[in-house]
TrEMBL record:
Statement: the UniProt record of this protein carries the keyword Transmembrane helix: yes
Database matches in Gene3D superfamilies: Spore Coat Polysaccharide Biosynthesis Protein SpsA, Chain A (3.90.550.10)
Membrane topology term: Multi-pass membrane protein
Alphabetized InterPro entries for the sequence: Glyco_trans_2-like, Glycosyltransferase_2, Nucleotide-diphossugar_trans
A Pfam entry, by short name: Glycos_transf_2
Principal subcellular localisation of the protein: membrane
Domain spans labelled Glycosyltransferase 2-like: 11-172
Coiled coil: none
Name under which the protein is recorded: Glycosyl transferase family 2
Sequence intervals crossing the membrane: 234-255, 267-291
One cellular component term from this protein's GO annotations in UniProt: plasma membrane
Keywords: Glycosyltransferase, Membrane, Transferase, Transmembrane, Transmembrane helix
Recorded GO MF terms: glycosyltransferase activity
């Protein structure tokens, strides 16, 4: 049995990019719900905001000793800001949520309850409200479908970066050398005991979404390339498909040639082009396979993660 002398600490991490208008309400609503749960800290990560987010953070930290903040040197993007927050958080459980109040802090007690019930990862799944931007909804759905068709650790559609991670899980993530983390894809890869909670996201009332189309495409690309090597395999599949077609072509060209109604040179050019095309794609596919291995290796993910072992239980 582990003897705990201190009450567990809850960390709430929020990456912020130009969220000055939301921060006061955010901190007020978070502390209102987590203070009754015990010790807590709120870690605000300024991701190179161009408004006065940092000044507001400084002010909030002066008013409430449970508020800490850190400011990144420039805008690194949501996922990296999140990682900075995880690195800085000291809690036994770390909850991450968006600073724009689209993730209702009032759900935190539900996440904590699931954690106390033994879950090590508590994920949330958005129930899309009908009034949300149809373009975002549609592209989001397409993205999850595409990703899940390729990846062997599926992500539940509607997954949000609103989740609770046990200290063990945070430490496992922090040990990864990968620079481009895509948390939504990483979390299902991690395993551990997972619980999931549904929620209705609120509309953004102040400030605007930093996710432009360009950023969404880049997030999607990093999500796919970090959790799947299937695109690299596509050329082999294409090569096999093309080889079949090429073979039909070759037979057809030879028949025409045998019948004597082919222009001289037509048969040989067609055969050579079709076969060479298929062969090139095949070789590209082989290179892709090796590149995939190189990618996996450079990502440096451990081959497995251990949840517990007898040695540890004894302590
Ligand atoms: N964010 C960030 N860095 C960025 C873009 C966004 O830290 O470069 C934060 C932002 O402040 C918010 C969260 O990430 O807390 C989600 O961003 P946003 O609301 O713009 O995304 P959406 O909800 O539209 O997907
Ligand atoms: Mg948002």
């Amino acid at each position: 049995m582990k003897i705990t002398t201190m009450a567990p600490l809850l960390s709430v991490v929020a990456p912020c990019f130009n969220e000055a208008a939301n921060l006061r309400e955010l901190v007020q609503r978070i502390s209102a719900v987590v203070a009754p749960l015990g010790n807590y800290e709120i870690v605000l990560v300024d991701d190179g905001s161009r408004d006065d987010s940092v000044a507001v953070m400084r002010d909030l930290a002066a008013q409430n000793p449970c508020v800490r903040w850190l400011a990144l040197s420039r805008n690194f993007g949501h996922q990296r800001a999140l990682r900075a927050g995880l690195d800085s958080a000291r809690g036994d459980a770390v909850i991450s949520l968006d600073a724009d109040l689209q993730h209702p802090p009032e759900l935190i007690p539900t996440l904590v309850e699931a954690w106390r019930g033994g879950a090590e990862v508590v994920t949330t799944v958005r129930q899309d409200p009908p009034e949300s931007d149809p373009f975002k909804r549609w592209t989001g759905r397409l993205f999850y479908r595409l990703l899940n068709a390729m990846s062997d650790t599926p992500i539940e559609p509607g997954s949000a970066d609103f989740r609770l991670l046990d200290r063990r899980v945070v430490d496992a993530i922090r040990a990864l050398p990968e620079t481009d983390l895509f948390f939504r894809g990483l979390v299902p890869w991690l395993g551990f005991r997972v619980a999931s909670v549904k929620f209705n996201p609120d509309a953004r009332t102040r400030g605007q979404s930093a996710y432009t189309l360009r950023r969404m495409v880049s997030l999607a690309a990093s999500g796919i390339t970090s959790s799947s090597i299937t695109p690299l395999r596509l050329s082999i599949l294409l090569a096999v498909g093309l080889a079949c077609v090429a073979l039909l072509f070759v037979v057809y060209a030879l028949l025409r040639w045998a019948a004597g109604d082919a222009v001289p040179g037509w048969t040989s050019i067609l055969v050579v082009v079709a076969l060479l095309g298929a062969m090139q794609l095949f070789v590209l596919g082989v290179i892709g396979e090796y590149l995939g291995r190189v990618l996996r290796q450079t990502q440096g993910r451990p081959p497995y993660l251990v949840r517990t072992a007898s040695d540890e239980e004894a302590r």
